[in-house]
TrEMBL record, chain A:
InterPro entries: Cyt_c_oxidase_su4_prok (IPR005171). It comes from Haloarchaeobius iranensis. Keywords: Cell membrane, Membrane, Transmembrane, Transmembrane helix. It is found in: Cell membrane. It holds the Pfam family COX4_pro. This is Cytochrome c oxidase subunit 4. It comes from the Archaea. It is a multi-pass membrane protein. One of its GO terms (cellular component) is plasma membrane. The chain crosses the membrane at residues 7-24, 36-56, 68-88. Its main location: membrane.
Automatic annotation (TrEMBL), chain B:
PROSITE patterns: COX1, COX1_CUB, COX3. Its main location: membrane. One of its GO terms (molecular function) is heme binding. GO terms for cellular component: membrane. Keywords: Electron transport, Heme, Iron, Membrane, Metal-binding, Respiratory chain, Transmembrane, Transmembrane helix, Transport. This is Cytochrome c oxidase subunit I+III. It comes from Haloarchaeobius iranensis.
Length: 89, 869
């Protein structure tokens, strides 16, 4: 049952992190210093994503190549977004 | 590099173990050889190992086949048909350009011809022709019996065919898309191209992309997981390498195109405003998405030609390609670089100077590896002993054309020169030299593999006549375009002084066109009455497809192929040995039956009609949807017909999906020896992961479109576009719901492992319930926002209100569609679980979970982006 327990702990952590994101907003940090709060919120999302991928999707137990594959996709999407956005600044 | 496939040559031609080693094995080969002839008058006595497929002369065969060689033939023939389609459009245009101004066509017709010609040639002819060869040759070259997912392979073909038919139909719906093959915004929006046919073209492209994506996933899984023992990546033949890199590029590039097309469809069907003039940066958004796909696409169409050229050079120069390792390395480099040069197509847009300079540098960078490849081909010729057969002539011609095209491309890569050359016939000439240069290489491939595919030789003299007419016609057609470069692109007006060049060009076009008549005559006739050939008609051809009969038997090899000794051999299969002689006879009659041992029980059917039916369904759905314009179907009967078509299509598609899941069907499983780097990832799972990687790009591009539009508008002013009523709470609740549903799936897996049926059913029901809750919550939220009445938004906040509402509804809408698909799958799994499936076998639940958690992860980003920041 220990695995089920691990999954439950992860679930609670995810739940809490989502709530924290909203707390950051409700507490007015976005008004106070927008970009700090913005990146804090985005990093929280990234952490949640890594946890879901690593444990719920079992990426941790797959060969490294599968993770690389997904990171390649992510890299492409980020490169497109960043370069395109930069091009019109 | 001693372990190179070159060694196979010497041995393959010397001993030819599979074909001529007398006795038993060749018997098997011969029998199946007859049976597998696609075109001859062959016996139709049902063979014991026909895989449940009707004989080749039966029409039914071609609708139910899932065999990679059949599908390769289907692709090849269909692609050639689209060559005629695109070619006729081109001849029309060249007639029009005989003299400046409107002569034979109206301006509107000319626009249609230009646009459709480009789209048909790039999408429906060039890539699919390459995929005909890839289908036929790649499994043979890597020692596999078939692709990993044979039915999906058939599905790719049917999607491709039906997307092409849809494209053809668009001509009869007012007008096909007429804004150029690059479909620039805002010309691509209904304001400028209101015809229903324009929408149909976009939807046809979506179906084509679906076909390409399914194909990429299939090829990637196959090529990574199912190589024969000893067939390491380093030893892989160059053509197969070129296809491997092509499908990797396709996987990512086509996902970006899919995103672009889906956003465009949303604008056209629902009436959102991504590319409307009112959208800040709408035109730029399209250009970025399109060219992020578009530049890799030029290599996607060119690489297979390069691979075919390399094979042809090796065979007809009688030696291995010089610097093989470097050649492959250069291709790999280009494949990666191809994703970082896209803005050289945007030098004349408002992108800033820094980024222009950067992309000029990357563009120069990408031309360097090409030099290496070109030199390697040239040295191969110098060091080898050339035999000037038709395939070589075309391969050599392709090299010459490509060099010219490449050099003229470097001009365009220079920002300053591009200011002058952009939008002129210089560009037209450049990309025809490279792209039709690629076609030239593939035509070489067609002659090269024709004997393998048909078992008969083409007429060499006619082949040479074809080449002479082709090469002269080509240069007569395209070279004058460099000289008349001041002609503006895509219109039929030009300075009268240039008329001479254009007339030369038109003459060349007809010469080029008629050269194909020679080819069609030659190949068609030879397919029936050409001289019969054995497995190896070329001598010195070094790759595995030449070690088996022409055409190869259904299961390709007379035993388990292995390269363990450094050259190709066929094992009898360990377990069969013990049964001794008696069984050996059977093994001869069922060549390859040992390959997968338990999986391939004799007589198992590899026929399935469902890929075809699913193709029909998808076709009808899209045809029906094309009638939808900015939220409305046409009035009256016409509208009813469109809606009816879509509904019928939906039912057919859904039914065939269900039927497909219920059908008993086994593809080859693997691993067969070499599966780097996915040795422990089973086929279906790997396929799923690869698909998800492309979905990352799809969602990434949707999110990217949001970020880009917001940056264009002014990031922190964005909230002006959003009503007060758009609050965090519904988003937070949905985050909770999705997280919980993900948890439920994980728990379902635990229960499955512990063989607790009710537990599995219960957790899956929870998953579905939470998912439905997610959708209902979203529905309530949307209803509310649609109908607000505030000072800023008196008429509600709907998808067409502004760019913020557009990005919000469309991005979260795409996500909701993913949720719905997941729920359908989960619903199906509940039924199965109720009947006792998955006990002690949690794999299907795990695979569903991969998808479901992915959808969850996407939401984890959509939530803050669309609700908080
Ligand atoms: C040797 C390396 C190459 C370089 C440096 C290069 C450079 C360029 C540049 C800078 C443009 C943009 C021109 C403009 O629109 O003003 C362009 C256009 C184009 N190139 Fe290339 N190119 C190369 C190879 C290729 C290859 C291999 C293909 C196809 C197989 C290709 C197909 C095209 C196409 C289709 C266009 C026109 C796109 C349109 O319709 O606007 N190019 N090339
Ligand atoms: Cu390019």
């Amino acid at each position: 049952m220990s695995r089920a327990k691990l999954y439950t702990v992860i679930y609670v952590v995810l739940f809490v992190l989502a709530t924290v994101q909203v707390v950051v907003e409700q507490a007015g940090y976005l008004e106070e210093s927008y970009w700090m709060a913005f990146w804090a919120i985005m990093v929280l999302s990234a952490v949640k994503a890594v946890v879901v991928a690593g444990w719920y999707q079992h990426l941790r137990w797959e060969p490294r190549s599968v993770t690389t594959l997904m990171l390649l996709g992510l890299l492409g999407a980020v490169a497109l977004t960043v370069a395109a956005s930069y091009s019109i600044l | 590099m001693t372990d190179d496939e070159h060694e196979t040559t010497a041995d393959g031609t010397g001993e030819e173990p599979p074909v001529s080693d007398g006795g038993t094995a060749s018997d098997g080969g011969a029998i199946v050889d007859d049976d597998g002839l696609p075109a001859g008058g062959v016996p139709d006595t049902p063979h014991e190992d026909d895989h449940g497929l009707p004989p080749t002369h039966s029409i039914r065969r071609w609708f139910v086949t899932t065999n990679h060689k059949d599908i390769g033939l289907l692709y090849t023939v269909t692609a050639l048909f689209f060559l005629i389609f695109g070619g006729l459009l081109a001849l029309l245009m060249r007639l029009e350009l005989w003299a400046p101004g409107a002569n034979v066509m109206s301006a509107a017709s000319y626009n249609q011809a230009v646009s459709a010609h480009g789209l048909v040639m790039v999408f429906w002819f060039l890539s699919p022709l390459a995929f005909g060869f890839a289908n036929y040759v790649v499994p043979l070259q890597i020692g596999a019996k078939d692709l990993a997912f044979p039915r999906l392979n058939a599905l790719s073909y049917w999607f491709y065919l039906f997307s092409g038919i849809l494209m053809g139909i668009s001509f009869f719906q007012g007008s096909t898309f007429n804004g150029g093959w690059t479909m620039y915004a805002p010309l691509n929006t209904p304001v400028y191209t209101p015809e229903i046919g324009g929408t149909t073209t976009v939807l046809a492209l979506i179906l084509f992309v679906a076909s390409a994506t399914v194909g990429s996933v299939n090829f990637l899984t196959t090529m990574h997981r199912m190589r024969a023992e000893g067939m390491t990546l380093r030893r892989m033949p160059i053509f197969t390498w070129s296809i491997l890199l092509t499908v990797w590029m396709m996987l990512f590039a086509f996902a970006a195109l899919l995103a672009a097309l889906m956003l465009l469809s949303s604008d056209r069907l629902i009436g959102t405003g991504y590319f409307a003039e009112s959208s800040p940066g709408g035109a730029m958004l399209w250009a970025h998405l399109f060219w992020f796909f578009g530049h890799p696409e030029v290599y996607i169409v060119f690489f297979p030609a390069l691979g075919a050229m390399a094979e042809i050079f090796q065979t007809f120069c009688g030696r291995r390609i010089v610097g093989r390792k470097w050649f492959i390395g250069a291709m790999l480099l280009v494949a990666i670089q191809s994703f970082v040069v896209w803005m050289h197509h945007m030098f004349l847009t408002s992108i800033n100077l820094e980024i222009k300079t950067l992309f000029m540098a990357t563009t120069i960078g990408i031309s360097l590896p090409f030099d290496l490849m070109v030199f390697s081909l040239i040295y191969t010729m110098l060091k080898g002993k050339i035999r000037f057969k038709t395939p070589f002539l075309f391969g050599f011609g392709a090299l010459v054309l490509f060099i010219l095209g490449g050099i003229t491309g470097v001009f365009l890569g220079a920002v300053v020169l591009d200011y002058t050359l952009r939008g002129t016939y210089w560009v037209v000439a450049h990309f025809h030299y490279v792209m039709v240069g690629g076609v030239t290489g593939l035509v070489g491939g067609l002659y090269y593999w024709f004997p393998k595919m048909t078992g008969r030789m083409y007429d060499e003299t006619l082949g040479k006549v074809h080449f002479a007419m082709y090469f002269v016609g080509f240069n007569l057609l395209y070279f004058p375009m460099f000289l008349a470069w001041e002609t503006p692109r895509r219109v039929f007006e030009y300075a009268p002084a240039l008329t001479g060049w254009h007339q030369l060009s038109t003459v060349g076009a007809f010469l080029l066109g008629s050269s194909f008549l020679v080819m069609f005559y030659n190949l068609f006739k030879s397919a029936f009455v050409g001289e019969e050939v054995d497995g190896q008609p070329w001598d010195f051809a070094s790759t595995a497809e030449w070690t088996v009969p022409s055409p190869p038997p259904l299961e390709n090899f007379p035993g388990v192929p292995t390269y363990a000794s450094g050259r190709l051999e066929f094992d009898d299969g360990g377990s069969a040995q013990t049964d001794g002689g008696a069984v050996h006879g059977k093994a001869a009659a069922l060549p390859g039956s040992e390959v997968t041992g338990t999986e391939h029980e004799g007589g198992e059917s590899h026929a399935s009609i469902w890929p075809f039916v699913l193709g029909v369904g998808a076709f009808l759905v899209l045809l029906g949807l094309s009638g939808l314009q900015r939220g409305y179907f046409p009035e009256g009967t016409m509208g009813g017909m469109y809606i009816g078509t879509a509904v019928v299509g939906g039912v057919v598609a859904f039914g065939s999906l269900v039927a497909m899941t219920r059908e008993r069907f086994h593809g080859p499983e693997g691993p067969f020896g070499e599966s780097w780097p996915f040795t422990t990832v089973e086929n279906t799972k790997l396929g799923l992961w690869i698909f998800l990687a492309s979905d990352v790009i799809l969602f990434g591009a949707f999110i990217g479109a949001y970020v880009f539009s917001r940056v264009a508008y002014g990031w922190t002013d964005w909230h002006h576009l959003i009503p007060e009523a758009h609050v965090v709470l519904p988003g937070l609740i949905n985050t909770y719901l999705l997280l919980t549903s993900s948890f439920a799936v994980v728990i379902a897996m635990e229960f499955a492992e512990r063989e607790n049926r009710l537990g599995v059913v219960g957790s899956l029901v929870a998953t579905v319930g939470l998912g439905i809750g997610f959708l209902v919550n979203k529905g309530i939220e949307w209803q509310h926002l649609f109908h607000i009445h505030t000072e800023a938004f008196p008429a509600g906040w709907d998808p067409g209100t502004n760019i913020a509402s557009t990005t919000f509804y469309v991005t979260t809408g795409l996500h909701a569609l993913h949720v719905i698909v997941g729920l359908v799958i989960a619903g199906y799994m509940i039924l199965r679980a109720w009947n006792g499936a998955y006990m002690g076998d949690d794999e299907p639940i795990e695979y569903f979970g991969l998808y479901w958690h992915f959808v969850d992860i996407v939401w984890l980003f959509l939530f803050p982006l669309f609700y908080i920041v």
